Amino acid sequence: MKVINVKDISKTYQYYKKQEGIRGSLKNLIHKEILSKEAVRNLSFSIEKGDMVGFIGMNGAGKTTTLKMLSGILKPTSGEVDVLGYNPFDKKNDFLKRISMVMGSRSQLWLDIPAIEAFALNKEIYGIEEKQYKDTLDELVELLNVGQLINTQVRRLSLGERMKMELILSLLHSPEIIFLDEPTIGLDVVSQNVIRKMLKAYNQKHNITIILTSHNLDDIETVCSKLMIIDSGQLMFNGQLEDFIQKQTSTKILRIKCSRDPARIKAVMGEHRVEILSEDNERMNVKVSKESVMQLTNILMSECMNDIKDISIEEADMQEIICNLYI
Amino acid sequence: MLRYFNIIVKFLKYAFIQALEYKANFILGGLFEFLWVILNVIFFKALYQNTTSIAGWSVDEVLLLVFICGLVDSVHSFFFASGFIDIPNLIRQGNLDLLLLKPINKRFFLSFRLINVGQILNVIFNVVMIIIYTNKITTNLSLPNVLLFILLIISALIIVNAFYFSLSMLAFWVIKVNAIIGYSQELFTVGNKPINVYPKMIQKIFTYLIPLGVAFSYPILYLSHKLSTSSLIAGFAIAVIFFALSHVLYRRGIKKYTSATS
Amino acid sequence: MNKYLKIMNTSLQNNMEYRFQFMTTIICSFIPFAVNSLIWLSINNYSSDLYGYSLNEIFTYYFIMMIVNNLLQCDIAYTVCDDIRSGTIIPYLLKPLNYMGYHLFNELPRKVVFILWGAAPTAVLFLFIRKSLTLSWDPILLVQFMVSLIIGILISFLLYYLLGLLAFTFSQVGNFIMGYGVLLTIISGKIFPLTLMPGVVRRILDFTPFQYTAYVPVTILQNKYDGYTEVFGVILLGIVWIAVLYGICRLLWKNGLDKYSAFGG
């Protein structure tokens, strides 16, 4: 079932060109030059219920703008947005109760109050039933392992703990769709992990649709099954994450741990078309084409057995793939 | 709706928790407004040493004016002032976005968000003084009289609320709103004097354009039987219209905000 | 001394940038002048004898007060307070610079700018209302007035600087400063002449420094003091107060620094 349907949306920002100095300011008074920037251009896509979609792109590519149009914060300059059958921009209360948005760089929590109080306020705002509130709260607290922290002043919590509270806050009213804009930004590795696990588990249990933007590709890889790449306001890719990785790369990565002198290994590889990605101490990462990786591995194993301590064949790095896209 | 009442209770609760954190701020919080009331009392008491009437107002009437202003000021500061002052910040830092997604009346949320409990003493003080001075001016008040008097004070609150809210709305268009808000305080020093002190032109401005005269002078004029019925009705109408105008400004502001931000 | 000249120069340039703010403040200061005058004008059965001022003298009082207030007002309390509480004062402690001197020389150009931007609008206002004013252009009065203005500038500065320094001891100085500002308007004579204060209060206020920030300069220019001897006495007391306030500031500064370094910022 499609929960989000977007047809040909565009978003153009208009701004005034600011002139320098006094002359410029005077000129501005008489005639303001209007410039426009197209943040999003003719975007079309749809998202099914329960999808976990990763949305990536460079800064300023239009990710956050798109997310804001889906949640109803912004109105598209043209095109139609349909989320759960509503026009998000109308911000009908019934619609707002079924969605949620979390922005990693903004907080909805009051610093001097324990998070539990903010939860209680949300309970009132969203009109959540007492029993449902308790059950959801217990479930989320357990999933995120925050226990007693909900009674601590938010000011005293670490960034990771605060983000967990933000997530609880945003899921208390059991939304069907949640938009997450850079949720793991600035968080330590452990917290990032916990949050990712929690999103997956929650999706499994409740079939919640998750749309997530992130610069941290681990987020996308771990949590999302679908991927959308946006560049300069246009959709470059929209499909399964696996497909993307498969299609985008014709290469695999060979990670070799050498026992001593890699000279012989290098000699062997020199005879094949490989690219050495990194080399230090006793480790070497090598990019090899998919067709020849098995053959090369065979040769390395037979001819350099004594020089290799460990060897593994891996998918190309997501980071690298994305970077290559933009080159 | 009960829901909105519960939410205000929650806001009150948070304000209390914060007040307990910053106790000194809580106690001294209302000091400034209290001193202003005292200042005006001293001023007028000094002037009335050698006269019984200024612009047709007796000393008790003028003092009642001072306390009504004090009450409106302290109630406004209690519920709304901090919230309104924060609006330019919300806009600038982009935190308004998430607020817009809450399934609740946004103006309500913006208005009651930050309650300042330190003002409660001021509120109580001014209420007591109003009761005392109302009795000094007129002793036989029928129930409808009292109700209309209270209604006039409520409309004063509405006018002041609309006034400050409109100023914060300017933040959607102007960056340096705080400076504008600062200068607009001067209007209050005009509005909180007996309206009859001013030449007719100024009186008109402070009745129809910036209805602070309606807000503060009308309750006393009503008690002293100096307010015609038509003026009374006009006063209420002006309060409603002024509030409606502030709402139009609000809608425009939100519209601009949601079509522009990136 | 050079560095202080430099500070003044920079301050002058900075303040010239804010011409819109200065203009608006000055125009806004016309409002209390007008409002207060109108209130006095509405007094029923006005008696110059009872009040000690004729109506025109009252208008003149508020007119001069407006100018004096614009010149003497000082915003440094908050700056000093913030510097201390946030620790931004520390670089100043390390510079071969007197912190108080820095602020004083920073403030003085503001007065110059006020005069620059305020002269024209004030002159225009004056032209409109000069028939209702009772200003004297007696050169001796003017000299006395100038002296009292200088005393007023210094006392006003010292009082606010002192308040700022209280931040070393109290965390809630901000509220104090606001409350003080309100209190000052009454006890300095800004809202109404101190002659209207009840006898006891008046006598006490006569010995305080607050009157120098408003009442004294205006009263000198209006020649309301009892001849040169009284003026001389008032000015002398003013100078004494400058010394006393300066001493208190030094003390607070020293004590504050000791406490400050104990906490490590």
TrEMBL record, chain A:
PROSITE patterns according to UniProt: ABC_TRANSPORTER_1, ABC_TRANSPORTER_2
Superkingdom of the source species: Bacteria
Pfam family, one: ABC_tran
Alphabetically ordered keywords of this record: ATP-binding, Nucleotide-binding, Transport
SUPFAM superfamilies membership: P-loop containing nucleoside triphosphate hydrolases (SSF52540)
Keyword Transport: yes
GO molecular function: ATP binding; ATP hydrolysis activity
Domain ABC transporter: from-to ranges: 4-257
The keyword Coiled coil appears for this protein: no
Listed PANTHER family: ABC TRANSPORTER ATP-BINDING PROTEIN, ABC TRANSPORTER RELATED
Protein name (database record): ABC transporter
The organism of origin for this protein: Ruminiclostridium papyrosolvens C7
Lineage of the species this protein comes from: Bacteria, Bacillati, Bacillota, Clostridia, Eubacteriales
TrEMBL record, chain B:
Keyword flag 4Fe-4S: no
Keywords: Membrane, Transmembrane, Transmembrane helix
Keyword Membrane found: yes
Pfam families assigned to the protein according to its UniProt record, in alphabetical order: ABC2_membrane_6
Transmembrane segments: 20-43, 63-87, 108-134, 146-175, 205-224, 230-250
Stored InterPro entries: ABC-2_transporter-like
PANTHER family xrefs: SLR0610 PROTEIN, SLR0610 PROTEIN-RELATED
Protein name, as recorded: ABC transporter permease
From TrEMBL, chain C:
Keywords: Membrane, Transmembrane, Transmembrane helix
Membrane-spanning intervals of the chain: 20-41, 61-81, 112-129, 141-163, 175-196, 231-253
InterPro entries: ABC-2_transporter-like
Matches recorded under Pfam families: ABC2_membrane_6 (PF06182)
Signal peptide bounds: none
PANTHER family with a match to the protein in the record: SLR1174 PROTEIN (PTHR36832:SF1), SLR1174 PROTEIN-RELATED (PTHR36832)
Name assigned to this protein: ABC transporter permease
Organism this protein belongs to: Ruminiclostridium papyrosolvens C7
